[in-house]
Protein backbone atom coordinates (compact mmCIF):
# COMPACT_ATOMS: atom_id res chain seq x y z
CA UNK A 1 0.00 0.00 0.00
CA UNK A 2 2.82 2.40 0.90
CA UNK A 3 4.57 1.54 -2.36
CA UNK A 4 1.49 2.55 -4.32
CA UNK A 5 1.54 5.95 -2.61
CA UNK A 6 5.29 6.53 -2.92
CA UNK A 7 5.58 5.77 -6.65
CA UNK A 8 3.19 8.53 -7.86
CA UNK A 9 4.91 10.98 -5.51
CA UNK A 10 8.31 10.19 -6.99
CA UNK A 11 6.99 10.61 -10.54
CA UNK A 12 5.41 13.95 -9.61
CA UNK A 13 8.66 15.17 -8.05
CA UNK A 14 10.65 14.15 -11.12
CA UNK A 15 8.27 16.11 -13.37
CA UNK A 16 8.52 19.21 -11.21
CA UNK A 17 12.34 18.95 -11.18
CA UNK A 18 12.44 18.57 -14.95
CA UNK A 19 10.32 21.68 -15.40
CA UNK A 20 12.55 23.64 -13.02
CA UNK A 21 15.72 22.43 -14.73
CA UNK A 22 14.45 23.16 -18.24
CA UNK A 23 15.59 26.84 -18.44
CA UNK A 24 19.16 25.84 -17.56
CA UNK A 25 19.41 22.93 -19.98
CA UNK A 26 17.68 24.92 -22.72
CA UNK A 27 20.17 27.80 -22.45
CA UNK A 28 22.06 28.08 -25.74
CA UNK A 29 25.82 27.80 -25.76
CA UNK A 30 27.54 30.90 -27.18
CA UNK A 31 28.00 30.66 -30.92
CA UNK A 32 31.56 29.83 -31.92
CA UNK A 33 33.33 32.65 -33.74
CA UNK A 34 33.86 31.77 -37.37
CA UNK A 35 37.47 30.91 -38.15
CA UNK A 36 38.79 32.78 -41.20
CA UNK A 37 42.39 31.65 -40.85
CA UNK A 38 42.07 29.87 -44.20
CA UNK A 39 41.25 33.20 -45.89
CA UNK A 40 44.83 34.47 -45.75
CA UNK A 41 44.26 36.94 -48.59
CA UNK A 42 41.09 38.34 -46.94
CA UNK A 43 38.86 37.59 -49.92
CA UNK A 44 35.83 38.30 -47.73
CA UNK A 45 36.90 41.95 -47.39
CA UNK A 46 35.26 43.06 -50.66
CA UNK A 47 33.23 39.97 -51.55
CA UNK A 48 29.85 41.49 -50.67
CA UNK A 49 30.65 44.92 -52.14
CA UNK A 50 31.75 43.37 -55.43
CA UNK A 51 28.27 41.91 -55.85
CA UNK A 52 26.66 45.35 -55.64
CA UNK A 53 28.76 47.03 -58.34
CA UNK A 54 26.93 48.27 -61.43
CA UNK A 55 27.74 46.84 -64.84
CA UNK A 56 31.29 47.75 -65.88
CA UNK A 57 31.99 50.49 -68.40
CA UNK A 58 34.95 50.80 -70.74
CA UNK A 59 36.46 53.29 -68.29
CA UNK A 60 36.47 51.16 -65.13
CA UNK A 61 39.79 51.17 -63.26
CA UNK A 62 40.60 49.00 -60.22
CA UNK A 63 43.07 50.31 -57.64
CA UNK A 64 44.75 47.20 -56.21
CA UNK A 65 47.03 47.68 -53.22
CA UNK A 66 47.22 47.98 -49.46
CA UNK A 67 46.76 50.80 -46.96
CA UNK A 68 47.84 53.59 -49.32
CA UNK A 69 44.78 52.91 -51.46
CA UNK A 70 42.41 51.92 -48.63
CA UNK A 71 43.21 55.09 -46.67
CA UNK A 72 42.88 57.20 -49.80
CA UNK A 73 39.18 56.39 -50.06
CA UNK A 74 38.70 56.98 -46.33
CA UNK A 75 40.61 60.30 -46.24
CA UNK A 76 39.52 61.74 -49.59
CA UNK A 77 36.26 59.95 -50.43
CA UNK A 78 35.38 62.55 -53.07
CA UNK A 79 38.06 61.13 -55.39
CA UNK A 80 36.22 57.82 -55.51
CA UNK A 81 32.79 59.28 -56.21
CA UNK A 82 33.77 58.57 -59.80
CA UNK A 83 31.85 55.30 -60.28
CA UNK A 84 34.55 54.00 -62.62
CA UNK A 85 37.23 54.17 -59.91
CA UNK A 86 37.06 50.98 -57.82
CA UNK A 87 39.25 51.00 -54.70
CA UNK A 88 40.40 47.54 -53.66
CA UNK A 89 43.11 48.34 -51.14
CA UNK A 90 43.48 46.28 -47.94
CA UNK A 91 45.77 47.60 -45.22
CA UNK A 92 48.83 45.53 -44.43
CA UNK A 93 48.71 43.27 -47.46
CA UNK A 94 51.80 41.98 -49.19
CA UNK A 95 52.27 41.19 -52.88
CA UNK A 96 51.30 37.47 -52.75
CA UNK A 97 48.02 38.41 -51.06
CA UNK A 98 47.27 40.85 -53.87
CA UNK A 99 47.99 38.06 -56.33
CA UNK A 100 45.55 35.72 -54.56
CA UNK A 101 42.88 38.43 -54.68
CA UNK A 102 43.52 39.26 -58.32
CA UNK A 103 40.75 37.10 -59.78
CA UNK A 104 38.03 38.19 -57.36
CA UNK A 105 38.93 41.86 -56.96
CA UNK A 106 40.22 42.62 -60.46
CA UNK A 107 39.45 40.09 -63.23
CA UNK A 108 35.87 39.39 -62.15
CA UNK A 109 35.10 43.13 -62.03
CA UNK A 110 35.93 43.39 -65.76
CA UNK A 111 37.87 46.66 -65.61
CA UNK A 112 39.52 48.36 -68.55
CA UNK A 113 42.65 48.93 -66.47
CA UNK A 114 44.22 48.01 -63.14
CA UNK A 115 46.64 50.03 -61.04
CA UNK A 116 49.01 47.75 -59.10
CA UNK A 117 50.76 49.23 -56.06
CA UNK A 118 52.77 46.59 -54.22
CA UNK A 119 55.91 46.03 -52.19
CA UNK A 120 56.13 48.27 -49.13
CA UNK A 121 54.52 45.85 -46.69
CA UNK A 122 56.73 43.08 -48.07
CA UNK A 123 59.78 45.21 -47.28
CA UNK A 124 58.42 46.04 -43.81
CA UNK A 125 57.72 42.37 -43.01
CA UNK A 126 59.13 40.97 -39.78
CA UNK A 127 60.35 37.62 -41.15
CA UNK A 128 62.99 39.09 -43.42
CA UNK A 129 62.57 36.60 -46.27
CA UNK A 130 61.33 39.07 -48.87
CA UNK A 131 63.52 40.20 -51.74
CA UNK A 132 62.92 42.56 -54.63
CA UNK A 133 62.94 39.51 -56.91
CA UNK A 134 60.13 37.83 -54.95
CA UNK A 135 58.03 40.99 -55.00
CA UNK A 136 58.53 41.30 -58.76
CA UNK A 137 57.64 37.63 -59.30
CA UNK A 138 54.21 38.33 -57.79
CA UNK A 139 53.85 41.54 -59.77
CA UNK A 140 54.76 39.71 -62.98
CA UNK A 141 52.12 37.07 -62.30
CA UNK A 142 49.47 39.76 -61.83
CA UNK A 143 50.53 41.48 -65.04
CA UNK A 144 50.35 38.22 -66.99
CA UNK A 145 46.85 37.52 -65.64
CA UNK A 146 45.73 41.03 -66.57
CA UNK A 147 47.05 40.72 -70.12
CA UNK A 148 45.34 37.34 -70.51
CA UNK A 149 42.03 39.05 -69.70
CA UNK A 150 42.72 42.13 -71.84
CA UNK A 151 43.11 44.45 -68.85
CA UNK A 152 45.58 47.30 -69.27
CA UNK A 153 48.18 47.52 -66.51
CA UNK A 154 49.46 50.60 -64.72
CA UNK A 155 52.45 49.77 -62.51
CA UNK A 156 53.40 52.05 -59.64
CA UNK A 157 56.76 53.26 -58.47
CA UNK A 158 56.21 53.10 -54.71
CA UNK A 159 55.94 56.12 -52.45
CA UNK A 160 59.16 57.06 -50.60
CA UNK A 161 59.58 55.76 -47.04
CA UNK A 162 62.48 56.81 -44.82
CA UNK A 163 61.36 54.82 -41.78
CA UNK A 164 58.37 52.74 -40.69
CA UNK A 165 56.90 54.02 -37.40
CA UNK A 166 56.04 50.46 -36.36
CA UNK A 167 59.48 49.05 -37.33
CA UNK A 168 62.01 51.78 -36.73
CA UNK A 169 65.57 51.29 -37.90
CA UNK A 170 64.73 49.04 -40.84
CA UNK A 171 66.18 51.61 -43.28
CA UNK A 172 63.68 50.99 -46.07
CA UNK A 173 64.55 54.01 -48.24
CA UNK A 174 67.17 52.25 -50.36
CA UNK A 175 65.03 49.11 -50.59
CA UNK A 176 62.13 51.16 -51.95
CA UNK A 177 64.47 52.75 -54.47
CA UNK A 178 65.74 49.32 -55.56
CA UNK A 179 62.16 48.04 -55.90
CA UNK A 180 61.17 51.07 -57.97
CA UNK A 181 64.16 50.55 -60.25
CA UNK A 182 62.96 46.98 -60.88
CA UNK A 183 59.36 48.14 -61.44
CA UNK A 184 60.48 50.78 -63.95
CA UNK A 185 62.63 48.26 -65.84
CA UNK A 186 59.81 45.71 -65.94
CA UNK A 187 57.30 48.33 -67.11
CA UNK A 188 59.63 49.47 -69.89
CA UNK A 189 60.38 45.91 -71.00
CA UNK A 190 56.69 45.00 -71.14
CA UNK A 191 55.32 48.24 -72.58
CA UNK A 192 53.34 49.09 -69.44
CA UNK A 193 52.34 52.51 -68.13
CA UNK A 194 54.44 53.61 -65.16
CA UNK A 195 52.71 55.65 -62.46
CA UNK A 196 55.44 57.39 -60.47
CA UNK A 197 54.33 58.13 -56.91
CA UNK A 198 57.92 58.42 -55.69
CA UNK A 199 59.23 61.52 -57.45
CA UNK A 200 56.54 64.09 -56.50
CA UNK A 201 56.52 63.07 -52.82
CA UNK A 202 60.22 62.52 -52.06
CA UNK A 203 62.37 64.73 -49.82
CA UNK A 204 66.14 65.08 -49.52
CA UNK A 205 66.39 61.96 -47.29
CA UNK A 206 64.46 59.78 -49.73
CA UNK A 207 61.49 59.89 -47.39
CA UNK A 208 58.14 61.62 -47.86
CA UNK A 209 57.96 65.39 -47.62
CA UNK A 210 56.76 66.28 -44.12
CA UNK A 211 54.00 68.54 -45.43
CA UNK A 212 52.55 65.70 -47.52
CA UNK A 213 52.41 62.80 -45.05
CA UNK A 214 50.67 61.71 -41.87
CA UNK A 215 53.37 59.42 -40.54
CA UNK A 216 56.17 59.19 -43.09
CA UNK A 217 54.44 56.30 -44.85
CA UNK A 218 50.85 57.34 -45.59
CA UNK A 219 49.99 60.59 -47.40
CA UNK A 220 47.78 63.28 -45.93
CA UNK A 221 45.11 65.08 -47.95
CA UNK A 222 47.70 67.27 -49.67
CA UNK A 223 49.74 64.20 -50.57
CA UNK A 224 46.71 62.45 -52.01
CA UNK A 225 45.89 65.51 -54.09
CA UNK A 226 49.29 65.21 -55.75
CA UNK A 227 48.76 61.47 -56.20
CA UNK A 228 45.36 62.13 -57.77
CA UNK A 229 46.91 64.36 -60.42
CA UNK A 230 49.54 61.86 -61.57
CA UNK A 231 47.05 59.00 -61.29
CA UNK A 232 44.52 60.70 -63.53
CA UNK A 233 47.27 61.36 -66.07
CA UNK A 234 48.28 57.68 -66.07
CA UNK A 235 44.66 56.54 -66.39
CA UNK A 236 44.11 58.87 -69.33
CA UNK A 237 47.05 57.20 -71.12
CA UNK A 238 45.72 53.73 -70.34
CA UNK A 239 42.22 54.47 -71.61
CA UNK A 240 43.27 55.98 -74.95
From TrEMBL:
PANTHER family: SGNH HYDROLASE-TYPE ESTERASE DOMAIN-CONTAINING PROTEIN, THIOESTERASE 1/PROTEASE 1/LYSOPHOSPHOLIPASE L1. One of its GO terms (molecular function) is phosphatidylcholine lysophospholipase activity. This is Acylhydrolase. Residues 1-18 form the signal peptide. The keyword Hydrolase applies. Keywords: Hydrolase, Signal. Pfam families: Lipase_GDSL_2 (PF13472). It comes from Mucilaginibacter terrenus. InterPro entries: Ester_Hydrolysis_Enzymes, SGNH_hydro, SGNH_hydro_sf. Residues 70-226 form the SGNH hydrolase-type esterase domain.
